[in-house]
Every structure is written in C-alpha cells, then in structure tokens.
Amino acid sequence: MPMLVLVWGMSAQRAAGTSLLMIVFTSLSSTVAYSRQKRIDYSLGIVLAAGTVPGALLGAYVTSYVKSELLSGLLGVFLLGVSVWMLIAQELPDRRPDLSRGARVKVDAHGHVFEYSPAHLIGLPGSFAAGLTSGVFGIGGGVLIVPLLRLGMGVPMHIASPTSMFMMIFTSIAGVATHAYLGNVRVEYAIPLCIGIVAGTQIGAFLARRTKARVLERMLAVCLLVIGGRMLIEMI
Asked: What is the pTM of this model?
C-alpha cells in the first residue's frame, strides 16, 4: 500500500484495493509455507476471522467517503502508533499462559513446543478493528493482528505471525471484493507484483523459523516506523 502510493503515485483508495488483491496471494503463499512448519493455530484463526471479515467489508466501503491525502496520512499515523506500541511492549516481561483458562500446546514440524492461553475477550473486538483497518488502508490486517495476538492475547510470536497470515486469506478476500465493486482495484499492477510476493513469502517464512521472536518483533516495529514516517511526511 505505501509503495503504490509513494512510488507509483496511485490514489490511496485504489492503492488500498490493489494492495488487498496482492495480499490474497501473499496470505495464500505464506499459509502454505507455514502449514508445512505446523505453526498455524487454525481454530483460533477461524474464530478471529469472524471479526475481521465484517470489519474489512465495512472498512473498504468507508474509503469512498475519505479523501486520498487524508487516508494516506491516517495510515502513516496508524503505522507509527503500532510501531511505538510494539517497541514499548518489548521491554515488558513476557506474559505466562494462564493454565486455568485452558492452555494450548502446539508442537511444530521441528519439535519446538509452544504453550499459551489466548485471551479471547481481547481478541474478538480487536479482530474486528484489525479487519476495519485492513479494509480502509489495504494492509491485510496482519500489521495489527500480529501485535494483537502477541501483545494482547499472549500468543507466541512464532505462532502469531503464521496464524495472522492464515486469517488474512479471509480478511483480504472480503476487503478486495468490496474495493472491486467500488472500482478501486488495478489488476494490471497487482499481477506482476504478485510474482515477487509469492517468492518473497516463501523466503520470509523460511527465515522467520530461524530468527528469534524478539528479533522478529523489532524488525516489524522498525519497518512500520520507517514506512509510517514516510507516509506522514508525504502528507505534510
């Protein structure tokens, strides 16, 4: 979404719709890669997708009432806020799973054990907000879903990221369907970019398995900080 606006000069509305079309392929490719690693919490992802899908539908519709420049600036502010939240949260101690709430134990394809207990009361309204953000900004929702799962619900980073990609299949399809109806999807841009996306997601999933969770969190936070700052500067 930022690349389509900053590099190709596309309107924020069309960039959002086109970005979501590419995210459909991103999420499908990533889900295939992460499924091999057995790091997707499918049941949790489906439950939370029930909130992201209506949020994405509403968010995509809202873009027709917001000016392109304002939409770009709001995206910049949002990304900056999420990055600061993640950087601050990294200094807090990890939350231990509350076993009385029903802990989940997940063993991945390489024998790593993850034990956690998701806070569903936080996740359900948060997932709707993530879907709404996805539809408005065309960012797939993962930029908010990962911090939500990791910091709000206590899901380990190596489970949160794969699960968010699985959720984004449903979220992005819902959002792009509405944007397509509004005429905000530029297929001629999306198709060639999807070739790079599919290759990139496979490499990204491979590298993520070999990277420490804290490093992944810092990398995501720094990327959001840089992109959000650039979007805000462009608006000013």
From this structure: 0.76
